[in-house]
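Take a look at this chain, tokens included, and explain the fold to me:
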Amino acid sequence: MLEITLRHAFPGFMLNAAIKAPPGVTVLFGRSGAGKTTIVNAVAGLLIPDEGRIASGDWVLLDTGRGIRLRPYQRRLGYIFQEGRLFPHMTVRQNLGYGAWFAPKDAPREKMDHVVDMLGIGPLLDRRPAALSGGEKQRVAIGRALLSAPRLILADEPLAALDEERKAEILPYFERLRDEVSIPILYVSHSATEVARLATTVAVLESGQVVRQGQAAEVLGDPAVLPMGAREAGAILTARVVAHHSDGLTELDAKNVPLFLPHIDRKPGEMVRVRIAAHDVMLSRNRPEGLSALNILPGVAQEIHLGEGPGAIIAIETQAGRLLARITRRSVQALELVPGAQVHAIIKTVSVAPSAIGGGGPEKR
């Protein structure tokens, strides 16, 4: 269990946060200025809070009440920054070896060959950083952090400096890191797509406070929790790949509900997470006929969250899982939507972007 309790006063800002999370990837999610990086700095030992406790199991990094304050170099952390921050005069192999050089002699550590294979950086070992793309540099930076035998990995918006193509390249490696490495990961993000694909636990921050925390599907499926605004609302479905069809579609099984999406590069039987954006979901009271949409899921409206403008977010419980729909207040009235109303959620097959689909992660186990 990762435990973080912090209280610290800045001029005009108060951080008062408490987080408890099981093993896996704990994502700090929220807008810029919410306090995410401040928490990471406290965990790293770069900030000593007025009051606080930081522990992972029986390993205590900070306990102001007991006078425990490990210095940064004592904390055994692997830190992944927004930029790779590799040593330019060293090859990739030497950068990786630099991380391993700092690992305590008796510490359990990942094997170099396993890390290189997991991150797909074997062909890069003799190159220098200047010859690497942004995504390649980040993969090497992940490997260097892993090989330092850390007890906790900090990733402070590690994809923020990458374009969409490079983000799509690197996200699968973070998924493998989550699934194949037993080290807890504290990950900072303001991207709903990253959170949906990677998070085991989500802690939503607003103005220095943790306003919601829990499993990714539960938190992102809450229409009252929209840290990045209604335009970024969306929910997660977990599904199994059934088959790839000749017309370019992949068939999924989401709790015995068939879903059809553009081709997914996963083998039949593998589990995937699918983020369905709220603005890509239409609602109908009756099952529609004669539509081009292939995915029509019957469900029940559970919560109706009215925004300050003309929009509304509706939470729908379906057999496949919870969905969110972003519609207008006028549509809410026209459809006579109230909690408990029977509805049909309509999802266009081609509206789900490849970047919104990732490995099933901890929920598949």
User: Anything to note?
Assistant: The longest helix spans residues 164-180. The helical segments are 36-44, 92-101, 112-119, 134-147, 164-180, 192-198, 216-220, 329-334. The longest strand covers residues 295-306. The two ends are 18 Å apart (CA to CA).
